[in-house]
Amino acid sequence: MYDMLSEFRVSEFDTVANVFKLTPGDPLDTVGEMWYPVFLWSLCSSVFVHTCAALVAFGTLRKHKYGKFFPVLLIVMGVVNPATSGVISSAAIAFVYRAANLTMPPIHAMIWGIGQTILGAAVGFTRILATL
């Protein structure tokens, strides 16, 4: 019987530097090889976006008594969000690719990871959840 979890290994893409090189030499073909780059791209892009937002917030709220501490919460959310929902959605993407017997080029992992951040930002800006 075929077990998808037995393929949950990270071989070539075991370091952060190898993920960001985007070398198209070996396509990602196991769940672990697909999940890890998608998750790292999601995490790094989210931290980048939230750090930019924190810098803007600190610039505008630096003289406020309590508001100057708000950027710390922004940076924490930039790490917590991909560490929770990003892990789950990255694993779901990897399992779908593996179930369909598709290989994932490293550039697609980057697109999926950054796409998760863009989708999260779009939901935050449009306030879709506030209408429910």
Topology:
Elements: H1 16-21, H2 31-61, H3 70-99, H4 106-126
Helix pairs in contact: 2-3, 2-4, 3-4
Q: How would you describe what is shown here?
A:
The protein is an all-alpha fold and 132 residues long. The chain has one domain. Helices cover 67% and strands 0% of the residues. It contains 4 helices and no strands. The longest helix has 31 residues. The termini are far apart.
Which descriptors would you attach to this protein?
single chain; 132 residues; mainly alpha; 4 helices
Strand content: under 5%
Helix fraction bin? 55-70%
Based on Cα principal axes, name the global outline. elongated
The largest sheet is: none
Regions with little confidence, pLDDT below 50 for 5+ residues: none
Order of helices and strands: HHHH
Radius of gyration: 17 Å
| Count of spatially separate domains | 1
Structural class: mainly alpha
The count of DSSP E runs of length 2 or more, i.e. the number of strands, is 0
- Count of DSSP H/I helices: 4
From the N-terminal CA to the C-terminal CA, the straight-line distance is 43 Å
Mean pLDDT figure = 84
